[in-house]
Amino acid sequence: MKQHEVLRRASLFLEENNREPKMAELLLQHYLGVSRSKFFTMMNEEVPESVLNQFHHALTEHAETGVPFEHITGFASFYSRDFLVNEYTLIPRPETEELIAYVVQTASAEPMRIADIGTGSGIIAITLALELPQAIVYATDISKEALKLAEKNAARLGADITFLEGDYLEPLIDHKITTDLIISNPPYISPDEKMLLSDTVKNFDPKEALFAEDNGLAAYKAIIRRLRDTLNQNGGNVLFEIGHRQGSDVQGLLQTAIPEMDVSVIRDINGKQRIVHGFCDSLASDK
């Protein structure tokens, strides 16, 4: 069959199975191994049998189980780079690119120490290390498997990161590392909301990277509780990605823990609460 016929039939098949038809285009382009622009010039060409077999197998698996495109291919695109992903790491969301862009736009040209907490596949730490070459970047995660993948991604992309195994800020404290910027996209979905998620998310993203107790606030509380032990005493920044209804809660947690911190909630391109930014010129001693 010609490419346009394969694509039309596959799109209809996905639609009949309540899946996004565009997945057919993504998968076919992947197995053909061509760029997006090249893909659309090949519509009248015949699809090789070997490609058809791989394509149909992946298409059927996605229709039946919801397995995401990134798990089929083993890669996810983030900030114009391809990252290895697997079952131990969260598939990066486009919204997190806005967190990166905010840091890059507001970062000082001076050398700074950045720590990415709960790094997963390493997308935040690696992207910041590459976009801000003046920075010294650390990344922590409690998952050995996630850290192994993050280290592979850093090596592939040429990013200099110090990876530390442990829970949230504890590895930094253990190594007596202080930072100018703490950044994190922690788990923030309440377990009560699990049934609202698509099977593509809840059955394939690691639960540890999705869900947090206490109405989705447990991870923020754990990080904020030890901030004074890890932020530079001469001042620093804290940046969290948040759920779109968590802005006031996370803002309140930060202001209660560190009253001298100026805290703001930043909305994303769709007008939803997306980032909480805390900043202070200096940290008062913890009484």
From TrEMBL:
Q: Which reaction does it catalyse?
A: L-glutaminyl-[peptide chain release factor] + S-adenosyl-L-methionine = N(5)-methyl-L-glutaminyl-[peptide chain release factor] + S-adenosyl-L-homocysteine + H(+)
So which residues are the signal peptide here? Answer: none
- EC numbers listed for it are 2.1.1.297
Residue ranges of domain Release factor glutamine methyltransferase N-terminal in the record: 5-74
Q: Which InterPro entries match?
A: DNA_methylase_N6_adenine_CS (IPR002052), HemK-like (IPR004556), N5-glutamine_MTase (IPR050320), PrmC_N (IPR040758), RF_methyltr_PrmC (IPR019874), SAM-dependent_MTases_sf (IPR029063), Small_mtfrase_dom (IPR007848)
Keyword line:
Methyltransferase, S-adenosyl-L-methionine, Transferase
One of the entry's Gene Ontology molecular-function terms is: nucleic acid binding
A biological process from GO? methylation
Task: Extract the CDD domains matched here.
Answer: AdoMet_MTases (cd02440)
Q: Give the similarity note.
A: Belongs to the protein N5-glutamine methyltransferase family. PrmC subfamily.
Q: What does the UniProt record say this protein does?
A: Methylates the class 1 translation termination release factors RF1/PrfA and RF2/PrfB on the glutamine residue of the universally conserved GGQ motif.
Designated name of the protein: Release factor glutamine methyltransferase
